[in-house]
Amino acid sequence: MRCLWVNPLTFVIAGSCAMLVADWTLAPFAFRPALLVLGVGLLAAELAMVPLSLARASDSAAMTQAALVATMLHLFCFVGVAAVALLKLSPPRAFTYWLLGSYCLSLILVVVACVRAVRSAAVPKA
Length: 126
Known about the structure:
Helices cover 82% and strands 0% of the residues. By secondary structure, the chain is mainly alpha-helical. It is elongated.
């Protein structure tokens, strides 16, 4: 599946551009939370592709369920990291904004991959 390498590549390029635009001249030390969040986003996007790759030879109903599981897995990865980070590490406020932006960016990529997978799946015979 092409989305296994296109998603991370797009995510890293877009995240790096956002980091350069937002914080390069303001606060270079704020890159640590941003890098942590971008790494989590990359990991969550890759984990979300696992159900799609497991169901790639299935019909459209099974692929739709795999897409739902993929988006839920993506959400729970971000919620878990946010909970651990906010309760244990007490990161700066920028972490929350980077987390929200990273979640939105990686969710767009995951949903695009899910829609493509569902559209390319075979229609079940009645």
